[in-house]
Amino acid sequence: MSSSLLLGRSWNACDVGVNNAANSGFLLWLFIPGLWTVLLLVWVAVGALLGNRPLLHAAALTVMLLGVSWCAVSIFWEGTVTPACPGGAPPWWPSFIPVPGWP
Question: Helices 32-50 and 54-77 sit at what angle, rounded to 10 degrees?
Fold first, then answer.
């Protein structure tokens, strides 16, 4: 998943966590299955609520899936304020995109 890749690369660039093996273990065994479960529940809920309206269904799913992924990354992004990333964002993060995290 792209959200776990983004989170893992930001942790790696900012030296967050114990080491890459510990971070990847968390991402592989907890974050990805948990995110898949939440996304599946959102998918089913949106499908049940909107029924047989394909364009509205597709638009709502896109918005919901992007929102859930952004929230999931934001929850675990908070620890990235380190000496390597004083602003909380890796050096490669584009300045025109807001940094994930809760204000």
Answer: 150
CB 73 within 8 A of CB 7: yes
pTM: 0.67
Q: What is the CA radius of gyration of the chain?
A: 16
C-beta separation of 36 from 69 below 8 A: no
The C-alpha angle with vertex 3 and arms to 80 and 86, in degrees rounded to 5, equals 15
What's the CA gap between 82 and 15, in Å, rounded?
7
For 81-96, the pLDDT digits (tens) are 677 777 777 888 888 8
Q: Which residues contact 77 (CB under 8 A, 6 or more apart)?
A: 7, 10, 88, 99, 100, 101
